[in-house]
């Protein structure tokens, strides 16, 4: 079939022009993350309600960013205290991540001659773990401890999949142990705490927990070993557990390497930006928190991306070869001008996929304060390097039964 | 030739469209429909049947003639899936009640029973129609259980399919509340293997 084209429009038949059209469409695709960027900006400006509205308008450009919409909604709803709704979004995200185990041939083929923005966002290894971290927090806050344990097991699976990349996520690992301990699953809790003791710079923060669970399991040698380094424990058997989030996770940056004549390797990277830890003081002074366990999410994300580096390089190399072959083939079949247009189009198409979960905090800290049964009024003073003033928080009055754990979440 | 190609591609399109159409069908409650290795509704039925049969055919319920009173304290979910274990306990209770050999305390309605009792004694209900206080029956036995799972994945190697082996086990116990002794315990298992392709369209 041939279309009639008036004189002067014959260039529309050129391969180069077709590539230019494709380029316009694809450049437009990379700009479709607009709603996600807007929602993240609204969220970090302290307006989670507006962020939720933006996210609820949905993604009209297909399912490429479906995972990100679910992840961002999960955090925004968590921040708004709608833990059940947040869990629903994150469960969908977890199931979507599981479905990504199968490689889509059509998607991979398309992205080989364009860029990764064309594919569905599958989440970095770290983000795949944090889905379960937020689900654990949601279920603990809702008092659904069996469900929190299910998520702890899912998180453990992720940690076993990518052990090196996720090793330094102490917050999530301590949260997993807490979910086991909360349901008296002593053996599992002991194992997680024991591995944490090996990986932490000092085992001190988890020594008391190891002593407790090893004691229940009758492991006297472990009890004796960790008793020597544990912080003096409190006789109180109830506990207030706080999930404190502060700062903002760094975003992925576009990186480029150029090779003549028109080869461009594009890759995402995280700029080094450490979020300092918290210093916490509790009033009244008789109530002291156990040693804090926290994760700098930026550095874990960086390690997770690093773990994927070989795959990125391999795919970039195949893509560069495919693009070079296309450009040469167009050059052989058409004139030099067509080849130049194709080369320019393919060069510009090479955009690094910088999509990421943007509403995450920079650091997550697990705070445990042993308390006696009864009513409590606590004041927290939080300090961090880089903050102009210390933050003072008066927790609303709460009551604890004997042996009870109460959970609260805070974000700055 | 061109006509043949047109007819062929038209037919291919029709076949593809037919494959994409939405279909529904009724599934019988006792039919086994299994898509993957995870927990399915047919597992619940098999588990409940096995437990009820064991409970009614063994001591202490086998010899009980006084329709002992039981209370269900639920089945703890220790699997790696979000499974509603209350659906299991509901079915176990229903099957045991249908046998006519035991009675159950309605533990989930205790608050509502207390509220209704207070209402009846609030002055608006005729005295002769009020229920009598302190006439509730105490439970003799407590029924509890734990559902566990173990998942085993095929080791990483070059292959086109990923195999997963899933093992579920339900352990249940009947405890004599007066003595604290476990009078009956049994378990039932479901083991399933599934494989998923690594590559899709």
CATH class of chain B: Alpha Beta
- At the first level of CATH, the class of chain A is Mainly Alpha
Q: Tally the helices of chain A: what do you get?
A: 16
User: How many structural domains are formed by the residues of chain A?
Assistant: 1
Contiguous low-pLDDT stretches of chain B (5 residues minimum) are none
Strand content of chain B: 25-35%
Query: What is the percent of helical residues of chain A?
Result: 40-55%
CATH architecture of chain B: 3-Layer(aba) Sandwich
The proportion of strand residues of chain A reads: 15-25%
CATH fold assignment of chain A:
Serine Threonine Protein Phosphatase 5, Tetratricopeptide repeat
Integer count of domains of chain B: 1
Backbone structural class of chain B? alpha/beta
Give me the strand/helix succession of chain A.
Answer: HHHHHEHHHHHHHHEEEEEHHHEEEEEE
General description of the model:
The complex is a heterodimer of chains A (412) and B (201). Chain A has one domain (14-411): Serine Threonine Protein Phosphatase 5, Tetratricopeptide repeat (Alpha Horseshoe). Chain A has helices at 15-30, 34-44, 48-56, 66-79, 83-99, 105-113, 125-142, 145-161, 163-166, 170-182, 186-199, 204-216, 220-227, 297-307, 309-333, 336-349, and strands spanning 103-104, 238-246, 252-259, 263-270, 278-283, 293-296, 363-371, 374-376, 379-384, 391-394, 398-400, 405-411. Chain A has a four-stranded mixed β-sheet with strand order 6-7-2-12. In chain A, strands 5-9-10 form a three-stranded antiparallel β-sheet, with no helix packed on it. Chain A has a two-stranded antiparallel ribbon with strand order 3-4. Chain A starts with 14 loop residues before the first helix and ends with a strand. Chain A is built from 16 helices and twelve strands. With 412 residues, chain A is α+β, with helices and mostly antiparallel strands. Residues 1-9 of chain A have low confidence and may be disordered. With 201 residues, chain B is of the alpha/beta class. Chain B has a single domain (35-197), classed as 3-Layer(aba) Sandwich (Rossmann fold). In chain B, a hairpin with a 7-residue loop joins strand 3 (141-153) and strand 4. In chain B, helix 2 (41-57) packs across helix 3. In chain B, 15% of the residues are buried. The mean pLDDT of chain B is 87. At the A-B interface, strand 1 and helix 8 of A face strand 1 and strand 6 of B. Strand 1 (103-104) of chain A pairs parallel with strand 6 (199-200) of chain B, so a sheet runs across the interface.
